[in-house]
Design a protein that fits this description.
256 residues, alpha/beta, Nucleotidyltransferase, domain 5, 2 domains, seven-stranded mixed β-sheet, 47% helix, 12% strand, elongated
């Protein structure tokens, strides 16, 4: 077998954070012996989430079995997911901001037998719908549980009670045309052909696009976690993976 050196573009503080929580988890369950230390388990997990390394490659690199890799990563993902901010916490934080930006994204998945609910007509691919809230500076506040890709953004937002919760809190929210009809404190651009807009409507849409651009940049930053480029796990595990990535993303941003 050929082996080559590799790197993970994360700071050592991110590794120490995850290792610390894994040690705490081991003490809680009374785990006495493991094939890998908490630090090595943390490195294994970061390699999977950040670089998208497969279980087989990680098993070879860490000289352990594939089943052990699967068990270690699942445990670490669950530990991280439990640390992710809840929607209520995100709304509380958002209430201190001038406004927030809401956007949806599709996380591609492998095609499965029951593919109809997971096929996005807009993107022409199978995936899971994720809703993301950012602050005016493009800092990520919250990522929603995953829904099948066939769910439209406005329906996904209502499923998670986002429009109602932000309206109750009096938080203004900028969103794209997919959220037309959300009402409340939502602000969406004018719909129609550009050449039929008045000068005022064009100015509003240009200003709206500039505000939303920061949210789209944050979405691109989130997808630097290469496992999200295409998820090959069970769809029931995707919410936990997104929450784990959210926790690590926030920790990385705080260190930066």
């Amino acid at each position: 077998m050929l082996v080559h050196p590799s790197g993970i573009d994360l700071s050592s503080s991110t590794l120490r954070l995850l290792a610390r929580h894994l040690r705490r988890r081991r003490r809680e369950i009374g785990s006495r012996w493991r094939r890998l230390s908490a630090g090595r388990q943390a490195l294994l997990t970061l390699g999977h989430l950040r670089c998208g390394d497969t279980y087989g490659r990680l098993a070879a690199g860490f000289n352990i079995g594939i089943a052990t890799v699967c068990r270690y990563i699942r445990e670490a993902v669950d530990v991280l997911a439990a640390l992710a901010p809840t929607f209520e916490q995100a709304v509380s934080t958002a209430a201190q901001k001038a406004y927030v930006i809401l956007d949806g994204t599709l996380l591609p998945i492998d095609r499965i037998a029951a593919d109809r609910p997971f096929c996005s007509g807009k993107h022409k691919k199978h995936g899971m719908n994720i809703q993301v809230i950012t602050d005016p500076f493009g800092h990520l506040l919250w990522a929603s549980p995953a829904l099948p890709g066939a769910v439209h953004d406005i329906k996904a937002a209502r499923t998670h009670d986002i429009p109602a919760a932000l309206t109750r809190a009096g938080i203004r929210c900028w969103a794209d045309k997919a959220y037309q009809g959300a009402g409340g404190t939502f602000r969406v651009p004018y719909q129609g052909r550009w050449d039929q807009f008045s000068a005022g409507q064009r100015a509003v849409n240009v200003s709206h696009a500039k505000i939303r651009a920061l949210g789209e940049q944050t979405m691109a930053t989130l997808k630097q976690w290469r496992l999200l480029h295409k998820l090959r796990c069970s769809t029931t595990r995707i919410t936990a993976i997104v929450q784990a990535v959210l926790t690590l993303h926030l920790a990385t941003s705080a260190c930066g």
